[in-house]
Automatic annotation (TrEMBL):
<dbReference type="InterPro" id="IPR032466">
    <property type="entry name" value="Metal_Hydrolase"/>
</dbReference>
<dbReference type="Pfam" id="PF01979">
    <property type="entry name" value="Amidohydro_1"/>
</dbReference>
<protein>
    <recommendedName>
        <fullName>Amidohydrolase-related domain-containing protein</fullName>
    </recommendedName>
</protein>
<dbReference type="GO" id="GO:0016810">
    <property type="term" value="F:hydrolase activity, acting on carbon-nitrogen (but not peptide) bonds"/>
</dbReference>
<dbReference type="InterPro" id="IPR006680">
    <property type="entry name" value="Amidohydro-rel"/>
</dbReference>
<dbReference type="InterPro" id="IPR011059">
    <property type="entry name" value="Metal-dep_hydrolase_composite"/>
</dbReference>
<dbReference type="InterPro" id="IPR051781">
    <property type="entry name" value="Metallo-dep_Hydrolase"/>
</dbReference>
<feature type="domain" description="Amidohydrolase-related">
    <location>
        <begin position="55"/>
        <end position="411"/>
    </location>
</feature>
């Protein structure tokens, strides 16, 4: 595979800026060399890119998506610099075919999935399917989901999910107290704890879906490693902080979807949709879906409560792992673009420095999901990179000024000045 050298460039390594005038050499799909000063003469490479005025950063990782269509979504994500997506509920057959596809297609974002979550009869997310799909198709799909009835079934569920290709285990703590609609059954605390124990026994990370503060705390009491959403139903409490601290759990905020649920942040959505990169990568339909809002929250819900919770947890040293809950056709989201909006909300609303937001988008995620081959600029890691004009550690909006994207050393977009 070709070698590529990017020189005279600022390097953000996933934690901090390590050079204002460095160079990075990509070879055989990996980062083969990083120099903190660009030497003269330049190291030899087949492709040489002058990165003056630009920044190289690790490829972005969206830690919460649902790639229901697959190929077009992974292509769009990569165009926006998202080199890896972590899917948080999908059909095992679809997961297997997407995993096979991304192995050889470096023009698509890499893909990981939880496959099915630890679902129960009548529980979340069945109402989502019944509300959005043809009833017959929805019923057919739901029929194939796990229906855990007792803690003794947890081990078998985890094993079968691993066999089907699950990279981590997702739990559902959802009684529908926040979203409009009738209450639905929730797994018992004993069942949730048994699923977490079984997953940990097999070395897998566990995450829970929860949309209220009360259910978030219940999931944390079951021992989950992370939450797949931030709640928006009330201001964060000290009890919440204590529950996160007890397990050293992380949070995937999915603020873009919280804002869609409550119908807020319209101006931010419009600004992102108007960016020239969105013009290039999203069709009219995609842009209009991105600017729509779900408006499904109960009247007391405020995205401001989510901002307060993210801010409080970060101040208390908890890991914030950037993720959006983007799904095709989900109002308020678009693959790739939503991730940039999510980061801008961390900086604009939750008191993050741009560098902290970028760490949440790269190295923190890699560490929490055991993706040890990516998420940082380091020799020997995958050459999943982003080249942007300007300094995103100074202005987070620069993450959208993309002039180069590489996955596994292969350029999707390449250039600089
Ligand atoms: Zn989700």
């Amino acid at each position: 595979m070709a070698s590529t050298l990017i020189h005279s460039v600022r390097l953000f390594d996933g934690n901090s800026t390590i050079s204002q005038n460095g160079c990075i050499l990509l070879k055989n799909g990996l980062i083969s060399n990083i120099l903190l000063m660009t030497p003269s003469p330049l190291p030899a490479a087949e492709t040489v890119i002058d990165g003056t005025g630009h920044t190289v950063l690790p490829g972005l990782i969206d830690a919460h998506v649902h790639a229901h269509d697959g190929e077009p979504e992974l292509k769009q994500a990569l165009g926006f610099g998202v080199t890896t997506v972590l899917d948080m509920f999908n059909e095992p057959g679809h997961v297997q075919s997407l995993k096979a596809l991304v192995k050889n297609r470096l023009d698509l974002a890499d893909f990981r999935s939880s496959c099915h979550a630890a679902t129960i009869e009548g529980g979340w997310p069945a109402p989502v399917l019944l509300a959005t799909l043809d009833r017959e198709i929805a019923t057919e799909k739901i029929k194939a989901w796990p229906k855990l009835a007792s803690p003794s079934e947890a081990e078998a569920f985890v094993l079968s999910n691993i066999e089907k290709g699950a990279d981590y285990i997702k739990l559902m703590q959802e009684s529908r107290s926040v979203m409009l609609g009738e209450p639905i059954p929730v797994p018992s605390p004993e069942l949730q704890a048994a699923v977490v124990t079984a997953a940990h026994k097999h070395g897998l990370v566990t995450l829970a879906h929860a949309l209220s503060q009360r259910e978030t705390i219940l999931a944390l009491e079951a021992g989950v490693d992370g939450l797949a959403h931030c709640f928006c139903d009330e201001p964060p409490s000290q009890e919440l902080v204590a529950a996160y601290k007890r397990n050293n759990s992380f949070l995937i905020p999915t603020l873009v979807v919280a804002a869609s649920v409550t119908g807020e942040e319209n101006e931010s959505s419009e600004q992102h949709a108007e960016h020239h990169l969105s013009e290039k990568l999203l069709g009219e339909e995609g842009k209009s879906c991105f600017c729509k809002k779900l408006m499904m929250g109960r009247p007391a819900c405020r995205v401001e409560y989510s901002y307060q919770a993210v801010k409080l947890l970060k101040e208390n040293g908890m890991d914030i792992v950037a993720g959006t809950d983007t799904a095709t056709g989900l109002a308020g989201t678009a693959f790739g673009l939503s991730f940039h909006q999510e980061l801008s909300l961390y900086v604009g609303r939750c008191g993050f420095t741009p560098a902290e937001a970028l760490s949440s988008a790269t190295s923190v995620t890699a560490r929490r999901f055991n993706l040890h081959d990516r998420g940082r600029l380091a020799e020997g890691l995958k050459a999943d990179l982003l080249l942007v004009k300007g300094d995103p550690t100074d202005d987070i909006r620069c993450t959208m000024n993309i002039t180069g994207v590489w996955r596994g050393g292969q350029a999707l977009i390449r250039g600089a000045n």
